[in-house]
Amino acid sequence: MNTATETPAAPDLQYGDYLRLDAVLSAQHPLSPDPNELLFIVQHQTSELWMKLLLHELRQAMQCIDADDLPPAFKMLSRVSRIFEQLVHAWDVLATMTPSEYSAIRPYLARSSGFQSWQYRSIEFLLGNKNAAMLQPHAQRAPQLAQLQADLAAPSLYDRALRLLARRGFALPPQTIERDFSQPHAASEAVEAAWLAVYRDPRAHWELYQLGEELIDLEDAFRLWRFRHVTTVERVIGHKTGTGGTSGVGYLRRRLDVVLFPELWSLRTHL
What was the pLDDT predicted at 248? Predict the structure, then answer.
């Protein structure tokens, strides 16, 4: 029987073998002769790795909220916020690529685009930015499409937080906590009133109060990541059309207006 104190099956396991570094470090295959393409590839590959960890932590946190086990959820949500900060700094590195350097590699990208990142789309869906039209770019990849369809239909992080409010005795209308979860949450006066009660007496509702602040931290970090994305793209390509066919900077700027947890922001005006 396995126990935590048993000797690992491979006591001579080496660092590079444990991390599968041969596979990781051989996964960069520039298509152009320009040396700056390696920066572009590494930045996006490492961002996808951070997003993999982010999704792992976010899904675990959602399960903990469903189980009314909030202390572990707080740690996981805090980690998600720190991962967003790491992703922000990744844009700082990519921003060292000049427009002329990017222009040298852009023809080799064809129609590939970060817009096609299924992990990013999962993050958006889990955080509540639901839009069924965003499934279309992934229609040809069955496993990823199935995961995205499940994420679209499932309650988001915020939906689960609102269900928790209801379980803790706050009166929320049924259409707030039992609805078509493939649609984004619509701001509700009843939800704001519930959060206001939490924030007006944090000692009586400490876990809910801390959850609200963890969600605000998370959205704050997510907004910064989106904003840094916009400024980096504008710096490198200006207002050209994106490689995936979007309007580029214009499309990204519109994403900045999305509010994930509206009542947690609006209540501050009324405290």
Answer: 64
